[in-house]
Amino acid sequence: MAVVPAAPVVLGVAMVLVVLAASAGAAGQLRMGFYAESCPGVERVVGDFVRQHVRRVPTVAAALLRLHFHDCFVRGCDASVLLNSTAGSVAEKDAPPNLTLRGFDLVDRVKALVEDACPGVVSCADVLALAARDAVVAIGGPSWRVATGRRDGTVSAMQEALDDIPKHTMTFPQLASLFASKGLGVRDLVWLSGAHTIGIAHCSSFADRLYGYPGGGVGAAGNDTADPALDATYAANLRRRKCRAAGGGYAEDGVVEMDPGSHLTFDLGYYRALLKRRGLLRSDAALLTDAAARADVEGVAAGPEEVFFQLFARSMARLAALQVKTGAEGEVRRNCAVVNGG
User: Fold this and answer.
1) 76 is in an annotated binding site
2) 13-165 has which CATH code?
């Protein structure tokens, strides 16, 4: 894949609006105000509900954002990640990368409110896209215009989730290639990774960076050889406190903030920690192994925060338009967990 040349990270508001408009225009029949006549006020209903819940449980923001991301990377933004498995097919939500997803119940509750107001009109895919945006705003992050008109998919396959969702062990070339296959560039990879500023990671997803590196012996008692790309002091602290199991080795279910100290604030902390070699996942550290990506990380980490907000908003608008189904494609599910008539 061709690498995007490094350039100063400067993007004016006018440029952001142009890019957002271009993204929306390229996404089939998506448009702003799609439900203006068929379900007026739907965005207010979604936004009010999401803001209320994020205020009470701020971690909901990261959950909804991750749910939207995992949905869009498999079959496009068609709410296929919300479908339950059936007797004949194992769905995306039951694939290993999705077993830690949260927020399904919240999406169902929002959808129920929308169905009460406008039965069979608003898709689950649009509800999820709006909810993810509103959750980021509710936690103090940027807003972006969400064009609507998505239709819901009727197929959900575990294997496709295994194939298409980025893995935390991927190298930079692997990540860049996967993003390119979705029509996203290196800079989209860098800016969308910024969502980790409000994320968490389970110890099992980076234990191989703490113990017995490289390869083998993960969790072995007394084997504290860490990935040299991870700050040694940080690695020792993770082994000693965050991921330590009572009987030795590591606690698989242990949870660590990806932006320690400000994981409930949408800010530049993730990028600044990354430059201190404190990115938890291999896929985080991988951003520093490519010259162009590293230059962008360094540029955005220097601030101001407004620049990151603009860049993140641009890439989120592009993500939300991936391979959408519109018009006669798909359906509008009445229950997000099952296809109509299922």
Assistant:
1) yes
2) 1.10.520.10
CA dist., res. 158 & res. 170, Å (int): 19
pLDDT digits (tens, 9 = 90+) for 106-116: 999 999 999 99
Residue 331 assigned ligand-binding role: no
Give all strands (DSSP E) within 221-266, no chain letters: 255-257
Domains 13-165 and 188-305 share a fold: no
Which superfamily does 188-305 belong to?
Answer: Peroxidase, domain 2 (1.10.420.10)
Catalytic residue selected from 68, 70, 168, 263: 70
What's the pLDDT tens digit per position in 172-197? 999 999 999 999 999 999 999 999 99
Give the residue among 260, 292, 254 at the shortest CA–CA distance from 276.
260
Q: Which residues contact 139 (CB under 8 A, 6 or more apart)?
A: 54, 58, 61, 198, 264, 265, 266
Tell me whether residue 202 is one of the annotated catalytic residues.
no
Query: Tokens representing 178?
Result: 């996967």
169 is in an annotated binding site: no
Can you give the pTM of this predicted structure?
A: 0.88
Domain definitions of the chain by residue range: 13-165, 188-305
Q: What is the CA radius of gyration of the chain?
A: 20
Residue with tokens 């006018």: 14
